Amino acid sequence: MVEENLLGELGAIRAEYDRECARLEEILRTRAGFREITKQHLIQGDAEKIKQDYHYQKELNRRIKAQELLIKEVLTRKDCKTLEVVEASKERKVIERLKEQKYSAYRQEYMAEEQKFLDDLASIRNRRISRGG
Fold first, then answer.
1. What is the mean pLDDT of residues 1-23?
2. Using one digit for the tens of pLDDT, what is the confidence trace for 88-105?
3. Which residues lie below 8 Å from residue 81, measured CB to CB, with a gap of 6+?
4. Neighbours of 6 (CB within 10 A)
5. What residues contact residue 61 under an 8 Å CB cut-off, 6+ apart?
């Protein structure tokens, strides 16, 4: 149950990671497309548009850096959660093995008691037969 919850949390973090990577790709595409517009403004020599382009490029670069930091943070959480899932899985397997060992020990003890009962029953029967009755 713990492992299942952790897997659910890991899935949510992976989805968040994918969303944030998609956002970064979108910003990068916007910047790449805007560079073409900036080239046209440079060719035209429009100082005001060039100034606006510069500030917009600067803002896009700031967004890219912020998005990259966010992705690193999400990736760190994803790695930590993956380790938690692995540890929970190991713990579950250990518990399952212990349960199997306990059950096996129980079965052996049960079979030994049953065999003892059958031996006692056979012994009583043999005594009755040897006494004649």
1. 94
2. 999 999 999 999 999 999
3. 6, 9, 10, 13
4. 19
5. 31
State pLDDT tens for residues 16-61: 999 999 999 999 999 999 888 988 888 898 889 999 999 999 999 9
- Total length of the chain: 133
- Reading the block at residue 61, the tokens are 């670069």
Residues 6+ apart with CB under 8 A from 111: none
Cα–Cα distance for residue pair 109/12, rounded to 1 Å: 47
Amino acid letter, 116: K
Residue keyed to tokens 């548009």: 49
Is 132 a residue whose pLDDT tops 80?
no
Residue keyed to tokens 């899935």: 11
Buried b (16+ CB within 10 A) or exposed e, 40-79: ebeeeeeeeeeeebeeeeeebeebeeebeeebeebeeebe
